[in-house]
Structure formats: C-alpha cells, structure tokens
Amino acid sequence: MLIKQVITIFKNYPKRHFFIILFGSILLISIGVLGNIDFSSKEKLSELTKALDINALNQEDVLYEAISTKDSVIKRNDSLYSILKRLGADSANIIHLINSKNSKLLSKIEIGDKIQLKLNDNNIIIKLLYFDDFKSGVKAELINGEYSISKFESDIEKVKVFKHVVIEDSMYMSGLREEIPDSVLMDIVYINGWDIDFTHDIRPGDSYTFIYEEVLINGEKVLNGDVLISEFNNQEKKYVAIRFDLDNGNSEYFSTEGENVKKAFLRSPVKLSYISSKYNLRRKHPVLHTIRSHNGVDYAANRGSPVRATGDGTVSFAQYNGGCGNEIKIKHSEDYTTRYCHLDKFNSRSKVGRKVKQGQTIGYVGSTGLATGPHLHYEFHVNGKHTDPLRVKFPNADPINPSLKFKYLEIANNLIDELKNYKTITLKDFEVKKEAPSG
C-alpha cells in the first residue's frame, strides 16, 4: 500500500524539480569524495623512485655490512703476515696494517697465543685482537681508513661455583661425572695430596666438597679460577684447606687452625702406581726366597714412569748399588733422608751435590738390581732409622704468619659459612629430587 502511494507521488511530481534534486545530490557526493583525495601522491611517488646519488651517502647511511669473524692459534714459524693471510685477509691490507703507527706492538707474537680478526666482504681487516693472555693483548681497529693500534685489558668478573661429589669408583672419574673441569680436579688432588694418596687411600663413599672460581669476560667464561676452600672426607677423616693470599704475592692453603696443609714431603714418589709390597720387617724376599726385612714400600708402575723427589733436599748418592740397582739418596735435613731403588735410569739433573725441589723428577721406574719386574723401592729414614713411609707423620710447611692470623681467620670463617650454606641448600635439593615420585 505504501509503495503504491510513493509511486503515485513520483508520477505526479514535476520532472524538472526531480532532475534538479538528483543533480544536486550527485554534486554533493562528488565534492565529498574529491575532498579526501591527496593530489600530492604523484609527487611523493616521484620522490621515492628518484635515483639515489651514491656519492651523497655517508657512513651513517650504511645500514649493514657483512662482517665475518675468524681466529687462529699462532704456530711455530708463523709471522704476522702469514697468519693474517691464512685467515683470509687481503695482502695489500695486511701491508697497510703492518706499516701503521704502533704496529711494533704486534711484532712480538708468541707460539700458542691467539689472534682474532673481523673481516668485511672485501677481506679488509676491520678489527684485530691479539691475546697474549686471557684478559689482555693488542687491538687494531680501522677508523676512517687508518689503523689505530693499542694495548687493551679486559675487565674480568669472578663467580663462585659450588661442587659436591660422592666417590663411586675413583676421585677423578666421579668428579668428571659431576661436570667438574679437569684442571679443577687436578687442583683438588694437589691441595689434598699432602695428606691423601689418591692412588691407594680412596674408598667408595668418600666425598669432597669445594668452592672454586670461574673467570668471566663480557659474561663469557674464559678460565677456571682457583679453588677457594676444599673439604675432603676420606675414610672417616676430614681434611679442610682454605686458600689465603700472602703478603709476598703467593697463595697457599691452610687448615682451619692456620696450619699449612703443604707438607715437607709428598705422600707418594710415583703418581700412577699401585703398592705391590708394604713395609714389613719379616717379608720373604721374592728373589732370594729368604726372610728379610722390607724396610720400605714398593710402588709397581710402568717402566719409565717418572719418579719424584718427595721433598726439597740435596742428592747425596746417585749410582748403581748391588741389589738396589740404580739408587738415589736425598738428604732433606739432619733428620730426614729418602732412598729410591731399582731405577731404570737417572734424570740428567740427579748428580751428587745437586739440590732438588719437591716434585722434581729425579729418575725413572725400572727393574735394575734384584727385582722381578719394574717398580720403585722407596724408603723414608728419620734420624738414620727406617720408618714406614705410609704411616709416618710428615712435618708441615711453615704455618701462617701470626701477624696475618686475624685476617686469615676472618676470610676462613666466611668461606666455611658459605660452604655450609651451599651444602645445606644443595643436599636438601638433592634429597627432594631423590624422594620425588616419578612420572
């Protein structure tokens, strides 16, 4: 009904008025649309597609340049030129670097040191770093077409790392399973080696706990640092060693009471060995088959294994001596003498009257004299009398200076507290993980 009325109105409406209204509506719509058009777009498009003038670009306009990093360890017969060429640097660019001011700082490169380069796509050296140790060296940087060469020293950061190990087989293998670095394990052996023979004394269930440092540069580990405190439990005996810096610049390890853990003598003269015969005053001789006292300890080892002086002293005897074969005697003081028998040969420095240092190689395991196989017969004399090397209590090295005792105890107590806290937190966490239900 409504539609019919609208149609009737339009039929009766004057056609002239109708066209005027229609034209006016179209005009208004056109004005609205054209008002939103940006007539400068063609100008903008022209600006965007205009060719760039390469000469007008400056260094700040370069958004990206491909840089590659290469490094190498300096080898025998390497020169600065040869190693840079090996790393891919352009020959003319190397000459440019070598002729630069202060290039003499790079003239004394040493075997084993490291060089790192940053090269661009044209094999031009953008930056060179020569490391003469983990934190310092020489750097060369290309600035405005010339090399600036100078020494550098990086800021280092030290972080403490806690480890706890229960020994299952050997101290070393158990430590490796806990991801302890080899060098740190060797430090633990050195620190505790005065009291513990790691070849013969270790038992399953023994444990060791310690704090050591890692050295970081720019947040990355570059070095395993020093062991700060070590606690070793061996056959129900506890050995604690704490690192302390002395006034002379050296560092040593002391007990909780300030006694030096270093002893005047090593516990064993041969590193990789096993005891084939102990101190026994009524032993049957393996060659003579008679009852004869065995006044020392026999260490079986591979022929040629190094034999160490167990303490500082002076060589008083070094020659072949009957059933003892090639023999060395070292006088350590008026009270202490050690004897080493059946050596395959002597070290060239082991001559009568020569002074030797603790741990220095004096000879090599053999089977000269009356011996059934390669081994070292080792004796320890106190005031001219034979004593059991495995049971004798060795004298300590010098204790901490009384003037430093207060400072040492302050540091020692702080480290002991840290170790206790670490043990409490870590061992509790271990127990929680152990008791947590699976799945």
- How far apart the termini lie comes to 78 Å
What helical percentage do the residues reach? 10-25%
Question: Which fold name fills CATH's third level, the topology of the largest domain?
Answer: Nuclear Transport Factor 2, Chain: A
CATH architecture of the largest domain: Roll
Task: List low-pLDDT spans.
Answer: 59-63, 430-434
Name the structural class: alpha+beta
Order of helices and strands: HHHEHHEEEEEHHEEEEEEEEEEEEEEEEH
Please report the number of helical segments.
8
Quick one: biggest sheet? 10 strands, antiparallel
Binned strand content: 25-35%
Mean pLDDT over all positions: 82
What is the gyration radius calculated from CA atoms? 40 Å
Give the beta-strand count. Answer: 22
Number of domains: 3
Shape: elongated
User: Which class of the largest domain in CATH terms?
Assistant: Alpha Beta
Kindly describe this structure.
By secondary structure, the protein is an alpha+beta fold. It contains 8 helices and 22 strands. The strands form 4 sheets. Strands 11, 14, 15, 16, 17, 18, 19, 20, 21 and 22 form a 10-stranded antiparallel beta sheet that branches. Strands 1-2-3-4-5 form a 5-stranded antiparallel beta sheet, covered by helices on one side. It has a 5-stranded antiparallel beta sheet with strand order 6-7-8-9-10, with helices on both faces. It is elongated. The two termini are 78 Å apart.
